[in-house]
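Subject: Interface between my chains keeps coming out wrong

I've been trying for a while to get a sensible model of this assembly. When I model each chain on its own everything looks fine, but I need the whole thing in one frame so I can look at the contacts. Pasting all components below, labels as-is. Any help appreciated, I'm running out of ideas.
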Amino acid sequence: MTNPLEENQRLTTRRNLLGRSTTGLGALAVSSLLGREAMGASLLQGGDSSVPHFAPRAKRVIYMFMSGGPSHIDLFDYKPAMRELHGQELPESIRRGQRLTTMTSGQTSFPCVAPMFDFKRHGQHQTWVSELLPHTAKIVDDICLIKSMKTEAINHDPAITYINTGSQQPGKASMGSWLSYGLGSMNRNLPDYVVMISRGKGNLQALYARLWGSGFLPSQHQGVKFRSGADPVLYLKNPEGIDRATRRRMLDGIERINRAKLAETADPEIEARISQYEMAYRMQTSVPDLMDLSDEPDSTFELYGEDARKPGTYAANCVLARRMAERDVRFIQLFHRGWDGHNNLPGEIRGQCKDTDQASAGLLTDLKRRGLLDDTLVIWGGEFGRTIYSQGNLTKTNHGRDHHGRCFTTWIAGAGIKPGIEHGATDDFSYNITRDPVHINDLNATILQQLGIDHRHFTYPYQGLEQRLSGVEGARVVNGILA
Amino acid sequence: MLTTLVLVTLCGDIPVDFSREVQPILSSHCFVCHGPDEGTRKKGLRLDLGSVVGVERGILVPHDPDTSELIRRITHSDPEQRMPAMETGDELTADEIDILTRWVSEGAVYQQHWAFRSLASGADDGESDWGHSPIDGFVGGELKRHGMNPSPEADRSTLIRRLSFDLCGMPPTPAEVAAFVADTNPDAYGDLVDRLLARPAYGERMTLSWMDAARYGDTSVHHADGPRDMWPWRDWVIEAYNQNMPFDQFTIEQLAGDLLPEPTLEQLVASGFHRNTPTSDEGGAIDEELRVKYMVDRVKTTGNVWLGLSVECAQCHDHKYDPFTMKDYYSFYAYFNQSVERGFQTRNGNERPLVSIPNKEQRVLLESFAESLRLADAFLAEAQPPAEGLDAWIVSEREVLLQSQRPILGSWYSLGPFGGKGPTCVVARSKPFAYNTDHGPERAGLDVTQEVAGLPWKERAADEDAKVHLLNLPNNSAQYLLRTVESKIDQSVMLALGSDDSIKVFLNGVEVFANDTARGTSLNSDQVSLSLPAGKSQLMLKIVNGGGASGYAFEMLGSGLPDAVQAALRVEAGAREAAGLAALKSHYLRAVWEPGREQVAARAALASQRDMVNAGVSTVMVMGDLPGGRQTYVLERGMYDAPRKDEAVQPMVPEHIFPLPEGAPANRLGLARWLTDPAHPLTARVTVNRYWTMLFGRGLVSSVMDFGSQGERPSHPQLLDWLAQDFIQSGWNVKRSLKQMVMSATYRQVSRASQDGLQRDPENQFLARASRYRLNGEFIRDQALSVSGLLVDKVGGPGVKPYQPPGLWNEVSLNGNLRFVRDMGQNLYRKSMYTYWKRSAPHPGMTIFDTPARDVCVVQRQRTNTPLQALASLNDVQYVEAARNLAQRVLLAESDFAARLDLAFMLCTAHPADDLRREVMGEALKAQLQVFEADPAAALALLGPGDSMRDESLDPSQLAAWTVLASMIQNLDETLTRE
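Reply #2:
Try treating it as a single job with all components included. I did that and got this:
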């Protein structure tokens, strides 16, 4: 290995030489040159030299993405007056002809449904929380509930693509890949952006590789899926019959020949390749070490729930998220599936909450105890909310709710977010926003803000446009929730 | 860029080049407020037009920068006055101010954006005598101007490997390398190029790039991302390249093959280019929203591929940098907006319009059925049923018809759901279980007050006929719907049914219709003729939901007799016209008269056999326009539901780029003719630049997808124009154009860089050496398969499913139950371009190496260098198996270490091993032999992965140790890299 400082100097010179090239290739050459190892001292530097624009409050993000659209009405956005509305038709003065999905636009009746669950007030600010979330109820003083989230999309595929990439059309870069690109890596042994998927018992909507893809950004920034089982990262394990010593010998041999090639051709990509093979080698121990929960004390499982002992569950992924945060993975995204309650919402949401409530709250508590919450931004939420009116028949014990993008609830905590507050409000029907609307692009702009990034100036030139995560319509940072 | 600026400053007396120097500054810093977008324009000032709006106001005073308002403002000392305006946060550098000032001094002459100007003709300036091809003249001259020298020609082994990958995506065999090295014929190089261009692999290699641009996939992308068959289109592309179809024809057939006069089957298949568009089947989707999305994708793809322009921002507002207004955008969009397709499309196979592509065997069978059917039809056309029988039938049918009344329909009652999950469901099972199982009510004489299988009948009194009703069924469950039908007489009626998903129909407990399908509910998906007996009957529907939304629709249409027959019967005997009589006779002949009925039955049996063959015939989706067309409007902010009804637009090209040729029709064919007009400034430039990028690793215009004002300027503008001219004049001859490029001395240089060369031109834009870069992921895998002897080199056919880590599909699939089942045998070893491409979960072995997901057009791939790539090529079973087979191959072919090693290196790098490589590999072999001899189980374990058989005659420790060596060689930079 060459002297990291010299190496860095050489690369920096080259970087200056290239300037902020607008060509894909120029940027590519730089970004792969700045392969983690080769970056030496400037480990924190990403692909955009202007980032961070100011001192960040957050070093990393844990995003608990609830795929399918959790019902804000049954979990957070409660008003006692809803009980009176139960069974009544949704007035046209509320719906105002707004478009519905074609799953319910043909319904002749839109009966309002109050939650079939109890709500109590919790915490210092007497925040309403559903009985389905007993553990979340205990952390309301640590989190900020944004009750006025909104999106234009009304179906899953466009909505989940929108919130994760800033566009309803495929082809754009996901939030995690933007951060990996812009901020670079904080560790030498793990990817910058990790994705973990778990499934609930409710109606499962599809996910897509584009949700954690890198779009137009260099593809090394795409999310790396960590999975339960023998190969937590694809192709991580050596083939049977190749032990660690053999693998070491192989890499040493490869490196000797590659170094000779480097001397012959002076191609800096070879230096980067040598580094990447070394990183792969380190990942073969750092990843299993990360994934192995056997060193966690019993208290961990008391906090996150016994489910966390089962690999692949949401609860186990929450424990892993904390372990990744400790190891400085930049962006950790959990997708939990099954929130799409069209038909049997009361039964399904009960199951979804059982799978996620304790672990989500446990993760937040754990981060706080370990002092990680100060510089970790934690987000819990889905791609949209659900309708006040029943999809299909409303019975004493059962009903459904359709997709609803006009308002929904997301919570966010840590890293400079005001704890224990509610932001925004909706009408009596939890249908329209009455105060402080927060577009999904505003939320994304705010996440960037906490990471020290001015979303307006965090751009990537592609196809003649300055692409940005927060869209072209002028997103605004939600200053009201910032401490 | 820097180099250019320095140069310009050094040679101060060279006039400023407007398009290269001035326009980028105006475009980046000024056009947002003073450009084409009316919405953001300030003070009505435009700086983007050829004739400047503002000269009369003193904004630009030619030859007088001091009085020009523009110069005054960009140099103003007061930040409030200085441009660009403070709130934009944008500033001009001293260099930029200098360029603008000199431009005004020199007369402030605007020139059209370089890429929209006509192609310049002309040879190079004769500055350099390097090389032997016109290309070298241009490149050599540019190098000379920059004080740089070209590199020498690479050795032949390097050249043949470079050419083989660039033109065929494959490594050369050692025999090919040896033959080429030994070939003393002066035309050896050109002959090699000709041989490579004549191989089927050439078409495959070209198609691989085209698949990225055409966003080709084996699935539909959105929501369920269900399967589709577009591979016959992909095979058409391979064939077109291999036949060296001229690029103008290639363009016309893909954009508008369906609109050509009497299109051939191949031309229809070609038009499938734009059916690769991602589509959705999402239950709650709004049809028009989706349909608009598809058209937007087609505009974007066409713009990116042929024009090298990104026009998508004009979907919502006028373009900020290029003169492309919303009206231009929607006029262009109008070419595509004629499509007959629906927004909501199937998740299960191909959506209309489509064409069938029978294979040879199927074609023979279908022809024989057609002949038999023709005979049957001839009989039915000519047969004369006895007149007295016909007359008697007419009299009796007329009587029945006139008496008949509409049956009386009772309320619907529902029962269920059965199957699925949830509180009211009996057992949790699959959709086939729900569909195939008789859950109880499949019998006559049901009583709706009595429970069936413990569940009650519930009245659905509100359900109206001829409307879609939602059922909210759990996934994989069945629901029954029952009603009484009371008829005064025996009569035949027709039902129009819709269901989400499968449906069965029972009359008095007897199944009379079944359709196991996956679809959304619409009013008239199935038509079922029902023979109602007189009296009360029970009609029952069974609806089975496979997943997501569920529902049904029902309508009773009337008599089961054809309309024409009914109409004729209603007319009195004497008053019937010839057509009516013919209808009656025909019906009698076919449906009543015994010999006729027999013939009809025989014909139906034949038709059903034919249909069975047809069901196995592959189809491919093709383009088709609405016969009457569709009116296009400008959509407010690009919203599907906000057409500006006062802004109707007709299909039209952006004529400020190039005028529409005389007589070009106002459809996609006209658009294609415009693109392929020999005088079009963009198509040829963009296309040859793409080829150049493929061969040199970097475009002459490095922003391959952006020839607009924000894109990069060409590094060698005259060369680009020369290549484009030559391409057009040769009749858009693709192979010739490629050969032209690879024959140049520029292409044949060594890729070795000097420290000085790296410093001065790190991106190699001036081409003082060959580029050196990692192979495409497909080529890396194909190389491993090829050198190990595993490759099954078969061209075309449906996508194949080689090894893939488990669980990747079901962890993201709708309902979570879609499992990847890998293929066996030959399909494990096909070229990577044939790997089944599921666009929501594409094969990781490819995406890790930067293959795009292909859910959107990509003209230039990323090229990254990551640890995941190392893990894949070291550990993926495909590579471990290939390493074992490569080891086996060299062990069997040669008998001593050096020869074996040379063979392995020749296969992977086209060069034998040198001393260092022999030393490294020798040490590795020694160490591994020790390891495996001490641990035979480890040796056997390493030899296990993969379906291919191991040669048992080889000593396992030897083979395992050589497998380690083979894996090392597979992972060397020189193996992974095209030098």
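Reply #3:
Confirming on my end. Chain A has one domain: 56-237+297-481.
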